[in-house]
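Good day; I would like, with your permission, to put a structural problem before you. A protein sequence and the structure tokens that stand for its backbone fold form the material at issue. I would ask you to consider whether the tokens describe a fold that such a sequence might reasonably adopt. I set the record out below, with my sincere thanks for your time.
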Amino acid sequence: MRRLRVATCQINTVVGDLHGNVDKIINVLGRAEAGGADVAVFPEMSVCGYPVEDLVLKTGFVEDCEVALSEVAAATTGRCAAVVGFVGGRRNIHNAVALCAGGEVVTVHNKRLLPNYSVFDENRYFTPGTDALDLVEINGVRCGIVICEDLWSPTGPILEQARGGAEVILCPNASPYRQGKALDRDMVVSTRAADNSVYIVYANQVGGQDELVFDGGSVVFDHQGRLLARSPQFTEHLMFCDLDVVPSYRKRRLDPRGELTATPDLPVITVSTASEVSRELVDSPITPPLDPYEELWEALVLGTRDYVVKNGFSRVGIALSGGIDSTIVTAIAADALGAANVHCVLMPSRFSSDHSLSDSEKLCANLGVEYRTIPIEPAHASFLDMLAPSFEERPTDTAEENLQSRIRGVLMMALSNKLGWLILTTGNKSETSVGYSTLYGDTAGGYAVIKDLWKTQIYQLCRWRNHRAGTELIPESIIDKAPSAELRPDQRDDQSLPPYDVLDAILALYVENDLTGTEIKDRGFDPDTVDRVVRLVDVAEYKRRQNPPGVRVSGKAFGRDRRMPMTNRYRG
């Protein structure tokens, strides 16, 4: 039996911040070294951040990444090797990982399987690796290296390395969050470990990057598919785990599938380390996964915090209406940035109810956030006077209603310019799907916190947040009231839309599962309602293209995931 101490280095990098990322990697590497690790595994593209998108088209960027990698390599002069992700190459650009030890880059592995689905566009940027694989012997243990997607295929590089004699697989990752993803990852890693009789060290990125949020949750599984260690989600974490590596060749050679027999060993590079030191066995953590509501909430909080902070803002502004959407955005922002950095603006009109103002004031008091009130009636009246000659003899309709929203948008952007706030918009996925929002009004802002949450989810999350707080943090009067835009007397959302439980069910099938209207009707939904909802979704595509980015938490979000043509006559 040989013992290998591994460290998973779950860090939050910033795309393009090469100096900052390198400093963080070297700092964490020093802590891993102090903890007696033989090898420290960092996330995919940890030197440059992930995803880098069109930055890789800049020749200077790729060259700078390789220079930054050399700085990391120079820091590996102790006993601890480092597995670090970067972008490299000259004529062909690769998503690559370097194993660094002894102050130099020992070997480089290029990612072979490039995902080109969902939010991934790696075939656009990278050339798949084709070089022969080699193994690295660290402290007497033969280790293979695969990168993220390489692990998901049962017949990919992990199988080749296991056949060739690997005992431990080191796997850097940048696996973005979606609901339920953590459990899916655990199942895949466990299966690959058991099928190939290898230990797997899976180090995942954490943090927000534009619309994506990475949840961490790094794991280590043994050669029988048993969980040895798991890092917490949504926070940076350095995790140590001792692997007592036992020979697995007999099990592989007797594999009934016959896939692992009579396979030559891969070349082995031996990494020199300092002399063996006395180390007590570490107690590796197995942090349980978060429950679904807490996981979703923490994803929204982290995605919002990182977008705000990484883009140089410290304070945010929110148009607070007393409705459920602006309420949950305010609560998320307070958790993400601290109440002192959240500023709410109440902008009542002639149609605003008294309870909307009182509910908003109570929410702000509960959260400890600052608010101000700017009535829009003077501006509304002036605009109506100016437009009267053009609107003459035409009935009142959505033009007058949307005018109020656009006045509020103008005010919020003025406050943003003057006070340096990033404006958080409050549109949810249900309303964004069917265009139930005012372009250049309530869509005006810099980040859309809840753009990937269905309306029904928002009510559930608000109730959960109160439960976690152990108090009525979000006033029940907000949760219980009928949703309304309050742009005309006695307005309710269900006058313009189907009830949200019906609407969300149809939208989930059409938007996230790509069913046609006919297929949805076959599931028992009212045909007229389905036709109406499908038409609303299709004609609102131009609006969605102009909306700000927001946190992606589902399996198919508007933006990077769902890319439909704006000019489109297909109705299914």
Notes: DSSP finds 19 helices and 20 strands in the chain. The chain has two domains: 2-271, 292-492+540-545. The longest helix spans residues 398-419.
